[in-house]
Structure to design on (118 residues):
């Protein structure tokens, strides 16, 4: 059985982009994340320690993104998905990375990836 733990609209800042004007300061990115996790154990125990703690995941992703300098959102998305699978025990992850303001006529651009453990 696989339930879903989600985080919507997580704002993180990262130095990201291929253009010179993007490389001077961190830019805001928005992440929507769905993580596969069996919630029966935390539901039975009612203990935070048994959960896939979305606050801890959010903090870890923000800290990770802040120390990277990738050019592509594709690279950041892959690394963040791997981090979630490896460090938090999620069985799967669907990750949308939106980059607001990257294209003049669009509210945001980005990628959506889905990955499974193993």
């Amino acid at each position: 059985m696989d339930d879903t733990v989600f985080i919507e609209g997580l704002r993180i800042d990262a130095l990201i982009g291929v253009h010179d004007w993007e490389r001077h300061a961190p830019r805001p990115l928005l992440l929507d994340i769905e993580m596969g996790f069996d919630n029966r154990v935390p539901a039975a125990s009612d203990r935070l320690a048994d959960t896939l703690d979305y606050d801890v995941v959010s903090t870890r992703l923000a800290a990770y993104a802040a120390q990277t300098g990738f050019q592509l959102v594709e690279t950041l998305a892959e690394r963040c998905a791997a981090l979630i699978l490896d460090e938090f025990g999620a069985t799967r992850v669907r990750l949308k990375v939106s980059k607001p303001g990257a294209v003049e006529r669009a509210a945001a651009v980005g990628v959506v990836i889905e990955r499974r453990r193993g």
Notes: Helices lie at 40-45, 54-66, 73-88. The two ends are 17 Å apart (CA to CA). The first strand starts at residue 3 and ends at 14. Residues 12 and 63 are 8 Å apart (CA to CA).
